[in-house]
């Protein structure tokens, strides 16, 4: 995260000393965003921890986050390490959802299922007697310096719902 600090201080983290920085930047402080921590474990590999889903007993299934500072043609690996379900549709062919602002603007392409080497498996971590499971996938971004999003399913926010209900309420035919 660019601005995360313990205690909620939103001051900017210092940029690296050199002018060139190929580290991806992650963000999830937007409606329905869900990301707690990101660790860069290798040059193009990131380990992600999600916040528990709201109103559950610390279950973790939903993810939705933004990635910037992308480089095209590089194989990145993403691994979410704290899922709580022992089985997943990812092992039966489901793939993460991806959205690129540049693809949307230049080619009118919206959300799409992506990823290679997708695996969902029990890892060696856990908490309070529960085992955690990981989802890992590789991916090449289509553009340099793009703003992209990954999600479990198509995001549908509370604001989307309120706008829909308001439209129904103001529809004279209904």
TrEMBL record:
Please verify whether the record's keywords include Nucleotidyltransferase. no
This protein's record includes keyword Protease: yes
The UniProt keyword set, sorted, is: Carboxypeptidase, Hydrolase, Metal-binding, Metalloprotease, Protease, Zinc
Cofactor(s), by name: Zn(2+)
Location of the Cytosolic carboxypeptidase N-terminal domain:
26-151
Q: Which GO terms describe its biological process?
A: proteolysis
A Gene Ontology molecular-function term? metallopeptidase activity
Name the domain of life: Eukaryota
* Catalytic reaction(s) noted: (L-glutamyl)(n+1)-gamma-L-glutamyl-L-glutamyl-[protein] + H2O = (L-glutamyl)(n)-gamma-L-glutamyl-L-glutamyl-[protein] + L-glutamate
Q: Which family does it belong to?
A: Belongs to the peptidase M14 family.
- Name of the protein in question: ATP/GTP binding protein-like 3
Protein species of origin:
Mustela putorius furo (European domestic ferret)
């Amino acid at each position: 995260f660019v601005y995360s600090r313990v205690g909620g201080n939103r001051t900017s983290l210092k940029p690296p000393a050199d002018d060139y920085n190929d580290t991806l930047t992650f963000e999830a402080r937007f409606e329905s965003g869900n990301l707690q921590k990101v660790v860069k474990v290798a040059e193009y590999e990131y380990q992600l921890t999600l916040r528990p889903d709201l109103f559950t007993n610390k279950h973790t299934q939903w993810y939705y986050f933004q990635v910037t500072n992308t480089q095209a043609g590089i194989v990145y690996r993403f691994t979410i390490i704290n899922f709580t379900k022992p089985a997943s549709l990812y092992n039966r062919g489901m793939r993460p959802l991806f959205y690129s602002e540049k693809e949307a603007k230049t080619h009118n392409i919206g959300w799409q299922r992506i990823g290679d080497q997708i695996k969902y498996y029990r890892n060696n971590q856990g908490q309070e007697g529960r085992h955690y499971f990981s989802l890992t996938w590789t991916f090449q971004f289509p553009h340099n310096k793009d703003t992209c999003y990954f999600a479990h399913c198509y995001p549908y926010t509370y604001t989307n719902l309120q706008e829909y209900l308001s439209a129904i309420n103001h529809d004279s035919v209904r």
